[in-house]
Amino acid sequence: MNNISSEHVYGSVRVQLQRRLAEPAPGHVQLLFGPRQVGKTTLLLEMQRAWGEHAIYAAADAPAAALPGWWDQLWHQAQQRAASGRAVLLLDEVHFISDWSRKLKHQVDELRRRQIPLHVVATGSSSLQLGAGARESMAGRFERLRLLHWPAAELAAQFKLSKTQALSQFIRHGGYPGAVPLLNDETRWRQYVRESIVEPAIGRDMQVLEKIRRPSLLRQVYAICAHHPAEILSLQKISGRLTDKGALETIAHYLHLMEEAALVAALPKYSRAMVRQRAAPPKLIALNQAFLATATDQPSPLPDREPERWGRWIENACIALAWNAGQQIWYWREEPWEVDMILSGSWGHWAVEVKTGSFGSNDLAGLSEFCRRHHDFQPLVLCDATYKKVALAAGMQAMSWEDYLWSGLHP
Length: 411
Known about the structure:
Blueprint: H1 10-21, E1 29-33, H2 40-51, E2 55-59, H3 70-82, E3 87-92, H4 100-114, E4 118-124, H5 127-137, E5 142-146, H6 152-159, H7 163-173, H8 186-209, H9 215-227, E6 231-232, H10 235-240, H11 248-260, E7 264-267, H12 274-279, E8 283-286, H13 289-293, H14 307-324, E9 328-334, E10 337-345, E11 348-354, H15 365-373, E12 378-383, H16 388-393, E13 397-400, H17 401-407
Parallel strand pairs: 1-4, 1-5, 2-3, 3-4, 11-12, 12-13
Antiparallel strand pairs: 6-8, 7-8, 9-10, 10-11
């Protein structure tokens, strides 16, 4: 069982979907969306097996879906299946259907008018595309389920791994379930992530969001983010490292699109004033550790050999975990102070400093200053287990980053 309190992990989404499909049909369309390779198709196929002959699975990105009459034939078959009792239509990658929301609205309204007991589940990789289409044409007819990157505990639950194995795999290789069988061959694993996940997400899925005028610039912005995990970089600095120069507004827009695609988060600075928040440089977080591992051909860092790089990887993993659990995240910096993560959401309100290796109470001055100014946030230090006593002696809560990556936080 996953210990992380999040509605976006695979096991939790599966339970929610099963519960909703147990309700009387026709009900709301269930829109299941999330990035590539997090288990959306796997979940639909699980539902197909569970429902047996009462389920129809169809992939909207398959060649057959481009044939004339495919859409009408699919719904005719689904309605026939429901004539003998409740049935479910499992429609994968629905956003590849032209004008999908209008067409789906028409069919759903027909189900309701005729009281045909057919559930509908549709998936897509694009939260913007699904969200916009649903809001425009399907108001009151749908519910959303968002499936995000897997945490270590979910890997352990689904692949029967120990806590130590799952945490090591999560930190060094990320949480893609489809890549797990390839981990014994590092070269093959890297190729799979680059060619089957990253490249299609940038080159195909994001084109569904909108026409990308400069795809080479988009790829370069992604590469910079993957090379600089948990770093604060101004748009000017990002622009200065690009081979293809682009306007700052274009770079900011591409960062926004990559966050919508669950590739990279550009964290804003925490500030009570929205103008100051928008003007501050973003903190770059890769939302899956696999992006760090495949950014170069370097092996993942070892704490004793590359302590600084290791520290960035751990900080990135800790912040990405909270983002993927649906928390709202910022960083804070007021010279000379800085706090790695400001967190607000179902986990509570926390100011979090991530430390690897040794540290002293003076290294927690930024955390202390932030909480002095903002009393509604609790201070927390995530550190190596042997150094928790330093944080506790400074009057702050402490937790090993291993335990945090395993279970998250609780209010």
